[in-house]
Amino acid sequence: MVEKRYEWRDGAVLEDHSRRKHQILRNYFFDYITVRCQIPQMERFRLAVVDGFAGGGRYVCGTAGSPVIFVEELKNAITAVNAHRVGQGLKPIEIECLLVLNDSCSDATEQLRANLAPLLGDIVDTTPQLHVKVEYLTEKFEAAYPKMKLLLASGRYRNVLFNLDQCGHSKVERHTIMDIMGSYASVEIFYTFAIQTLLTFLRGTDPQRLARQLRPFDISIDDLQDQTKGMTKPAWMGAAERLVFDSFNRCAKFVSPFSINNPDGWRYWLIHFANSHRARQVYNNLLHANSSQQAHFGRSGLNMLSYDPADEGGSLYLFDMSGRRNAHDKLVTDIPRLISESGDVIEVSEFYEGIYNTTPAHSEDIHKAMIDCPDLEILTPSGGERRKFNTIAVGDVIKLKTQRSFFPMFLGPTAKKDTD
Ligand SMILES: C[S@@+](CC[C@H](N)C(=O)[O-])C[C@H]1O[C@@H](n2cnc3c(N)ncnc32)[C@H](O)[C@@H]1O
């Protein structure tokens, strides 16, 4: 893949695969605001959004780019939240948002100012509860990052979302991702990463170049060679991809790499980094609503990372109905196994904390599998049994039944004798 240059002065062309990414970003940001503004007593919500590779705001066809999406969805979300609150007899909420918009190309930031001006003017006129402040920067992201941190620190923002829509795989340092994830009380990153381009580089034979490519991920040439010895090309690609993912997986509590395919055959990851399982749950559910052209590279069920890279057929989770049916079957056996590893009972909140870094599953499929599994019962705080999947709540507990239907791994010596 040759790196794409964006011609913002004459109008940049929007590719189809970017539409998919924009749809995910748009839906996620709307859900993010509505979920964060659910507390009835809340009257003010403050957040900062940093768009590190912001672009010009609109493509030549008129379609919105990420900064315009953020502004439009802020307005849509506060309108929906406040309509709901008025219906409930609650006071409307105020939202204060700092937008830090950076692009290294000055044509892009110039276009962006022009494209945002009418939207920001409209907010002032029509949505007095929404307060948006914009800071523009025109620098390479890594050079701008210390200034971004200062802006966030001086405004004391605790809710922060970064959109790092780089072209390629090398414009954001891994330690910067770790720094972002460690710096704010509630923080999430959307990160575009051209995994296929990196893998193509890694296939090269020049050891010095290979070492340079691997260094940012803390992977040594020996690691790569040990883990890929004698593999066929597809298996090699799978194993190398797994090593790179493992490196990102150490950057945050919840990390999900979803592949977006471009029709020309190359693909990139849209990685979501979060520190709260709730954020990951919202994201997983949303990806199922946008299922075409994307895939998860691990297996379905709870333990997506246990896939065998040599098994190409079983290594992709597509967010479609047949993938979900397959996921349900895996979850019915994975969930009781996981519970048994910590004893015979676990709180639903602790269960979520434990699974959400390792599953691409929809929350509905997880809840249905909990109800359908003959080895489990879900108990409410007062001890009653849940019978409907859509009533499961974080205060419930999941319990292994004493009479288990089938679990060879649990059978002790006596029980084993019975089955012999
Ligand atoms: C994929 S486009 C961004 C598109 C934008 N996020 C959107 O949704 O419309 C990547 C942008 O990054 C800019 N860029 C390239 N290298 C950069 C760097 N090192 N730091 C910041 N911006 C960079 C390019 O000028 C281009 O506008």
Task: Please summarize what this structure is.
With 420 residues, the chain is α/β, with parallel strands linked by helices. The protein is 45% helix and 17% strand.
3D structure, described in words:
The protein is an alpha/beta fold. The chain has two domains: 16-297; 338-419, no CATH class. It is built from 14 helices and twelve strands. It has helices spanning 16-36, 66-87, 106-126, 141-154, 174-183, 195-202, 207-214, 221-228, 233-249, 277-289, 321-341, 348-355, 363-372, 413-419; strands spanning 44-51, 94-102, 130-137, 159-164, 186-193, 254-261, 267-274, 294-296, 317-318, 345-347, 376-379, 397-400. The strands form two sheets. Strands 3-2-1-4-5-7-6-8-9 form a nine-stranded mixed β-sheet, with helices on both faces. Strands 10-12-11 form a three-stranded antiparallel β-sheet. Helix 3 links the parallel strand 2 and strand 3 (130-137). The protein is globular.
Order of helices and strands: HEHEHEHEHEHHHHEEHEEHEHHEEH
What share of the residues does DSSP label as strand, in percent?
A: 15-25%
Q: What's the average pLDDT?
A: 85
Q: What's the Cα radius of gyration?
A: 23 Å
Basic shape: globular
Number of domains: 2
Determine the N-to-C terminus distance: 58 Å
Total helical segments: 14
- Helix share, percent: 40-55%
Return residue spans where pLDDT drops below 50 for at least 5 consecutive residues.
305-314, 408-420
How are the strands ordered across the major sheet? Answer: 3-2-1-4-5-7-6-8-9
